[in-house]
Design a protein that fits this description.
globular; single chain; binds pyridoxal-5'-phosphate; alpha/beta; eight-stranded parallel sheet
Length: 222
């Protein structure tokens, strides 16, 4: 009807895992539902999927507050940029935050953890292509960001990247894995509709797949 079926994506993920000598169960599929119409999201829920990625705090709250009343076991991941003034809301709403890329955010998150006593899974976003317009910490500045997390008592789960659109993603996935290994981090959030199999080959633990599941987004990519 719209994108590929969830079953098809899972089959491709399992095949990619097998080729890489990995357990398929070690890789989480985040269905990226940003700006998708509700009927498509409901179809994926009805198919039994429960883990979703959203780009914006407000949009996620608007969509998922009512849906979560029906599906309390839904797990939401924030994969888009986080503004410092939305940290508290994001920390209450999301199971994981994939876009930590600056010291100020680390401080705000640490404050929120102090206040609430709970912390989502945290990923630092790395701008592996060093693209000026893109979010993420550069590979050079990652050490300092990780130090800052440790200094504030936060434990990072892993790293996330969005490779440059017009480049072969494989070297970016490899770089992210190397950076994670160097810092003893186990989570690797990488791979989207066009390249999730390559990401799995490079060690991805969380793939973020939108249009391949839901179909093309009606509103432009952001
Ligand atoms: C939109 C988005 C995705 C999903 O992209 P598709 O190409 O539709 O699979 C994955 N990750 C991030 C950070 C996104 O913003």
């Amino acid at each position: 009807v719209f994108g590929m079926s969830l079953g098809e994506i899972r089959t491709r993920m399992a095949a990619a895992a097998e080729r890489a000598g990995r357990e398929a169960s070690s890789i989480q599929l985040l269905a990226v539902s940003k700006v998708q119409p509700e009927d498509r999201v409901r179809a994926v829920l009805a198919a039994g999927h429960r883990v979703f990625g959203e780009n914006r705090v407000q949009e996620a709250e608007d969509r998922w507050t009512p849906l979560r009343a029906e599906y309390p076991d839904v797990e939401l991941h924030l994969i888009g940029p986080l503004q410092s003034n939305k940290v508290r809301r994001a920390m209450e709403f999301f199971h994981a935050i994939h876009s930590i890329d600056r010291e100020r955010l680390v401080r705000r998150i640490a404050d929120a953890v102090q206040a609430s006593g709970r912390c989502p899974l945290l990923f630092a976003q790395v701008n592996t292509g060093r693209e000026p317009q893109k979010a993420g910490v550069t590979p050079e500045n990652l050490d300092a960001l990780i130090e800052s997390c440790r200094g504030h008592g936060l434990s990072l789960h892993g790293l996330m990247c969005i490779p440059p659109a017009e480049e072969d993603p494989a070297p970016h996935f490899t770089l992210l894995r190397e950076l994670a290994e160097r810092h003893g981090l186990t989570g690797l959030s990488m791979g989207m509709s066009g390249d999730f199999e390559q990401a799995i080959a490079a060690g991805a633990t969380h793939v973020r797949v939108g249009s391949a599941i839901f179909g093309e987004r009606q509103t432009p990519q952001r």
